[in-house]
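Hi P.,

Sorry for the delay on this. The queue was packed all week, but I finally got your sequence through. Input first:
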Amino acid sequence: MGHWGAMTDATPAPEPSPPGTDDRRPRYALWTALVWAVVYALDQVTKVLAVANLVEEGDPQPLVGDLLQLHLIRNPGAAFGFATGFTWIFTVLAAVVVVVVVRMSRKLRSLPWALAFGFLLAGATGNLTDRLLREPGFARGHVVDFLQLPHWPIFNVADASICTAAVLIAVLAVRGTGLDGRRETRPARTHQEAEGA
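Then the structure:
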């Protein structure tokens, strides 16, 4: 008993984590999942309503006057009707984006990045669902677009979500905010460097 007690007392205690290294990743990944779930559901529900209530290629119907109208079309290409002859390529690209975003979201320690990833994931999976499940066939399905602004291609909620993500990512990149939430700081220039410039 004494020998066992001595061995137990000699067992080293685990070292405490260094200050500032608390693992908050699950919380931020949860924000990504929450944004994805809300926006993805909104995208799918609005597409179902658009298909059920609008005539394809029919006359635009005002939703907010002439500012925002409803105009149902089937888009075989990328967002805003780009590259309509390469549906299967965009299906593959969307699937790759989903995998990359899911993997990277597990490393997040920044709320703004978590929100950006949530919007990006929702947009990618929203349109990917159409390409996988809608006519004319698996991986070749046409995306449902139905929102129209003046002088702007017809789009859907998933497209708007992708654009929102792009803006957030651009702002974070310009500000130098990393996935860990820290901002990159450039070293101050010395007096000699300033004179040399």
